[in-house]
Design goal:
This protein has 5 helices and 4 strands, in the order E-E-H-E-H-H-H-H-E.
């Protein structure tokens, strides 16, 4: 992904993606594979995890023994840049004055967004979590949605298996919205990779 300054941006793009976090990154990947010309807008600065992160340090190897500070609200090893529970001049409203009913959201301002700040937790939802509408009247129940999505994923899996079978037989699949163009490397491997335009990122 090329990181460019605003002055290098083209006058037109097919899609403008706001934010380079998990959602924006996946969107850019998917759309550029489909052949769309994308520009990604990121409010924060560039960030290179291999050279800039301190997450692998022990507390005794860090300033102040990794004690939280206003600039590093999770301590020195926190990878977040210019962010936290509260960002100066960027407040957001709460639906309730009661602290126990408020929702706080950790927000970074950096390339990669919250993908750089993972608390090493992968929570799994249970049946209780998928029925908020029945439970408290808010949102909607996910059970029916999940069943429908499951059926779509099943059909998608069948289509993918058919595609692999066709490729093994030497047939070239044509995807809607894509132009499958064989390359020299693909020909040697017996596959037909699709050429796609590269994603662009603009830091402001």
């Amino acid at each position: 992904m090329a990181i460019i300054d605003r002055s290098q941006a083209q006058p037109e793009y097919d899609v403008a993606i706001v934010g380079s976090g998990a959602g924006g990154g996946q969107m850019a990947y998917t759309l550029t594979l489909a052949g769309l010309k994308c520009v990604m807008l990121e409010a924060g600065r560039s960030y290179d995890p291999p050279t800039q992160t301190a997450m692998l340090h022990r507390p005794d190897q860090t300033p102040l023994l990794n004690t939280p500070t206003p600039d590093k609200q999770m301590g020195f090893t926190d990878a977040t840049v210019d962010g936290g529970w509260i960002i100066p001049d960027e407040p957001y409203t709460q639906a309730s004055e009661k602290p126990e009913e408020q929702f706080s959201w950790w927000r970074p301002r950096m390339l990669g967004g919250r993908t750089n700040h993972w608390g090493r937790m992968s929570l799994r939802n249970g049946p209780y979590d998928f029925k908020p509408r029945s439970r408290d009247g808010l949102g909607f129940d996910w059970a029916d949605q999940l069943r429908r999505r499951g059926a779509l994923l099943h059909e998608s899996g069948n289509a993918h298996r058919r595609l692999r079978h066709e490729r093994r037989d030497g047939e070239h699949a044509q995807f809607p919205g894509r132009r499958a163009a064989p390359t020299a490397q693909g020909a040697r491997l017996g596959t037909v990779p699709c050429r796609s335009r590269s994603s662009r990122s603009v830091s402001r």
